[in-house]
Write a structure and sequence with these properties.
This protein is an all-alpha fold and 210 residues long. It has two domains: 47 residues; 146 residues, no CATH class. Helix content is 81%, strand content 0%. Helix 8 packs antiparallel against helix 9.
Length: 210
């Protein structure tokens, strides 16, 4: 399914590129006789280059580095690391804990207590790993949602400028409100008519909610 979607996107890119080049050539030919030198200079500066537009779209689909994804976890990552460190410390020092509790040389009871303390440490470390993994998968899910949103809007022929604004809002949402509320915050902002985004964007997020 992903391979078919990627193939469709490539075909759409090629078709849009050809159509854009053809349209640009036709407009240049029709207006060449009437353009002033000043207008020509302005046209060259303001015209969107199809290759650069496609390169910008590809850059929007790039995911952040692993380190940046972990930073998006916020306090959850710190709590998970503390749990892991405490769990490993308990596992390493389990014999000392058992001896301190029983205040006697090792016996059957001491060995059993040492095992229980070690299991508690392992459980605490696993809890820390689970916290980090849970937050990390939320980050992955959010960026997959972002990529899918950009793909869907690109297929709907959304121009590169509003597409770049959508991408900026998607990135800002996770940085401002954190991973737990990033998707809700992004959708609420992108559905707002006050941003002046094209109807294509507003209709897309209206469909997404229903």
């Amino acid at each position: 399914m992903n391979a078919e979607l990627e193939q469709q996107l490539r075909e759409l890119d090629e078709r849009r590129h050809r159509e854009t080049v053809e349209l640009r050539e036709r407009l240049d030919r029709l207006s060449e006789a009437t353009r002033s030198p000043r207008y020509e200079s302005y046209g060259r500066d303001s015209r969107i280059n199809p290759e650069r537009a496609h390169a910008s779209y590809e850059a929007m689909l790039e995911e952040p580095s692993i380190n940046k994804k972990l930073r998006y976890l916020g306090p959850q990552a710190l709590v998970g690391i503390v749990y892991i460190a405490m769990g490993l410390f308990i596992v390493v020092a389990r014999d000392n804990f058992a001896f301190a509790v029983l205040r006697a040389d090792f016996s059957g009871s001491a060995n059993a207590l040492s095992v229980m303390v070690g299991m508690s440490g392992i459980s605490l470390a696993l809890a820390g790993i689970w916290l980090i993994w849970r937050g990390y998968t939320r980050v992955l899910d959010y960026f997959e949602f972002s990529r899918q949103t950009l793909r869907d809007l690109y297929v709907r022929d959304l121009p590169i400028e509003p597409l770049a604004r959508v991408n900026t809002i998607l990135r800002q949402s996770i940085e401002r409100v954190g991973i737990r509320h990033a998707r809700r915050a992004a959708i609420d902002r992108l559905r707002s008519p006050e941003l002046g985004l094209p109807e294509t964007v507003l209709y897309y997020f209206h469909e997404l909610e229903h």
